[in-house]
TrEMBL record:
SUPFAM superfamilies: FAD/NAD(P)-binding domain. Keywords: FAD, Flavoprotein, Monooxygenase, Oxidoreductase. Coiled coil: none annotated. Residues 136-333 form the FAD-binding domain. The lineage of its organism: Bacteria, Bacillati, Actinomycetota, Actinomycetes, Micromonosporales. It comes from Paractinoplanes pyxinae. It holds the Pfam family FAD_binding_3. The keyword Flavoprotein applies. PANTHER family: FAD-BINDING DOMAIN-CONTAINING PROTEIN, MONOOXYGENASE, FAD-BINDING. This is NAD(P)/FAD-dependent oxidoreductase. InterPro entries: FAD-bd, FAD/NAD-bd_sf.
Length: 399
């Protein structure tokens, strides 16, 4: 009788693992407390070239086509823009891809990943301890605060980062920040507050496709105030461009949520045995680098490959050793943004960064781009009253 695996958690990593195991002939069951794949919060995710290639390796071709239909690819992620809190673009960083990337909402991604697994997922199943001996291996893929991981390791696997995110989704307004047509945008504000903006403008005819929308999120030092989330987002961004406040006001009912950021408590070897860890259950990370979902996908594909090609004990040791090499790098990519956010809480440093540092960086990138190519310059000049930046007194420009 072959290996039988219980995957606790039908998130992005857990569902990817189920496909990868089945593709390699390994029997598995996924256990999840939700009623179905659509019962999830969360917003647009960034899948790297490596993650998308890994998904294409284990998913049916029909599911890969559905992902492309429901998401946006390289053509809509050509730059990363940095704006000040009044909406002026201070820096545009070109993004170049060596392979295919995907920007897609969490709900359609999870819905598509659940396809083909209907007979392998037990929805509505709450798991508080490793399932019984009918399974040879239990994979804790139940996210940040995993109960299975905590029991197996003997301590929590995540620690709070001291930052809270408040996010919402707004139906596509008549005018949007022009920079969102070409990629993602981050707004730098005073008092250690930042905001992130993302546009989901593409949608295909797949049933999982979502209507166009803009995701906004506000990240700030952990708050304890007892107030409604939209009011808290407004208060944290007092004095910011009125267009951001309009987006907050126009949020779809039920779409505004708060989530604390986490880092791993310690990325170190965990005990060997019939339980192993995957995704946020072992390496939770803030969304500031957009690497959480991609790293969980890589975890899943590596684990399935190892289990299919080695004896179980050797496979688990190999998987753990590999994860502990690449996961810390992914976590570290999320740290600089939070460090700078804390530093920019100092008024003098905030002014220096937005009025001097970012414009100088933009000029340097513009010169470098001009030197590399005789084509179009991708980096704009520093924003001014006559420039291409956003103006608080005017609607956000559209293209």
């Amino acid at each position: 009788m072959g290996l039988r695996v219980a995957v606790v958690g039908a998130g992005i990593g857990g569902l990817t693992l189920a496909h990868a195991l089945r593709r390699r002939g390994i029997d598995c069951v996924v256990l999840d407390r939700d009623a179905g794949p659509g019962a999830t919060d969360g917003y647009r995710l960034h899948l790297t070239e490596q993650a998308f290639a890994a998904l294409a390796e284990v998913l049916p071709e029909s599911s890969v086509r559905a992902l492309r239909a429901c998401g946006a690819g390289n053509e809509t992620f050509r730059q990363f823009a940095m704006l000040d809190h009044r909406g002026h673009t201070r820096l545009r960083i070109p993004v170049r891809h060596s392979g295919e990337v995907l920007l897609i909402g969490r709900r359609p991604l999870r819905t598509i990943l659940a396809r083909g697994l209907e007979n392998h997922i037990r929805w509505g199943t709450t798991v508080t301890e490793p399932p019984g001996p009918e399974f040879d291996l239990v994979v804790a893929a139940d996210g940040t605060g995993s109960r299975i991981a905590r029991q197996w390791v003997g301590r929590p696997t995540g620690r709070p980062a001291g930052v809270i995110g408040i996010a919402g989704r707004s139906r596509l307004p008549q005018r949007i920040p022009a920079d969102l047509r070409d990629g993602l945008a981050f707004m730098i504000g005073p008092r250690g507050v930042g905001a992130f903006l993302s546009l989901q403008a593409e949608h295909g005819d797949d049933p999982a496709a979502e209507k166009p929308y803009v995701v906004w999120s506000v990240a700030a030092p952990l708050q304890t105030a007892d107030e409604e989330l939209k009011q808290l987002a407004h208060r944290l961004t007092t004095g910011w461009t009125a267009d951001l406040h309009a987006l907050i006001d126009q949020s779809e009912p039920g779409s505004v949520a708060a989530f604390p950021f986490f880092f791993p408590a310690a990325l170190e070897p965990w005990p060997a045995g019939r339980v192993t860890l995957l995704g946020d259950a072992v390496h939770p990370m803030p969304p500031t680098a957009g690497a959480g979902a991609s790293t969980a996908i890589l975890d899943a594909v590596h684990l399935a490959r190892d289990l299919a090609t080695m004896p179980t004990a050797q496979a688990l040791a190999t998987y753990q050793a590999r994860l502990l090499r690449y996961a810390p790098r992914a976590v570290d990519e999320a740290r600089p943004a939070l460090r700078w956010q804390r530093r920019l809480a100092r008024p003098a440093l905030f002014a220096l960064a937005t009025e001097v540092g970012l414009p100088l960086a933009a000029a340097g990138l513009r010169l470098a781009q001009t030197a590399r190519s005789t084509g179009a310059v991708l980096i704009s000049a520093p924003a001014s009253s006559a420039g291409s930046g956003l103006d608080m007194k005017k609607p956000w420009p559209s293209r």
